[in-house]
Amino acid sequence: MNSLVIAITLFILALLIGVEVIGKVPATLHTPLMSGANSIHGIVIVGVIIIAAESHSPLSYILIFLAAVLGAMNVVGGYVVTDRMLEMFKSSKPDTGKSKTSQDEQASTVTTETAKNEGANK
C-alpha cells in the first residue's frame, strides 16, 4: 500500500509540474516545442511495449491498449502539427525553376513548329 501512495504522489507532482511548465510557454513557442516533443511520445510507446511484456491480467491488457492508442495518437498528431507548421513557412510565390522549365518547353515547341513549317515551304 505504501508503494501505491508513493506512486500516486509522484504522478500528482508530475502533473502539477507539467501544467506549470507548459503554462509558462508563450503561444508563439508552443507549436515548435510540441512538435519537438515527438521523441518523448515515442519513448511512451517503448514504455508501453516494455510493460506489455510483464502484463498478465485483463485489466492490464486494457490499460496497455489504451496507453498504446493514446501514445500513437500523440506521435501522429505531433507530426501533423509539425507538417502544418512547416507549411506556413513555404513561399506562396511561384517557383522560378518551374517557370523556367515551362518556358523551355514552349521554346522547344515553337522551334519544332517552325522547323515543320520551313520543311513544308520548301
UniProtKB/TrEMBL annotation:
Query: Any idea where the NAD(P) transhydrogenase alpha subunit C-terminal domain is?
Result: 8-90
Q: What is its EC number?
A: 7.1.1.1
As its record notes, the protein acts as a catalyst of:
NAD(+) + NADPH + H(+)(in) = NADH + NADP(+) + H(+)(out)
Q: Write out the annotated subcellular location.
A: Cell inner membrane
Composition bias of kind Basic and acidic residues appears in: 91-103
Q: Where is this region: Disordered?
A: 91-122
Q: Which InterPro entries match?
A: NADP_transhyd_a_C
Membrane topology, from the record: Multi-pass membrane protein
Ordered alphabetically, the record's keywords are:
Cell inner membrane, Cell membrane, Membrane, NAD, NADP, Translocase, Transmembrane, Transmembrane helix
Which residues fall in a compositionally biased region of kind Polar residues?
104-114
Q: Coiled-coil regions in this chain?
A: none
**Membrane-spanning parts:** 33-52, 59-81
Q: What does this protein do?
A: The transhydrogenation between NADH and NADP is coupled to respiration and ATP hydrolysis and functions as a proton pump across the membrane.
- Know the name of this protein? proton-translocating NAD(P)(+) transhydrogenase
Organism of derivation: Bifidobacterium polysaccharolyticum
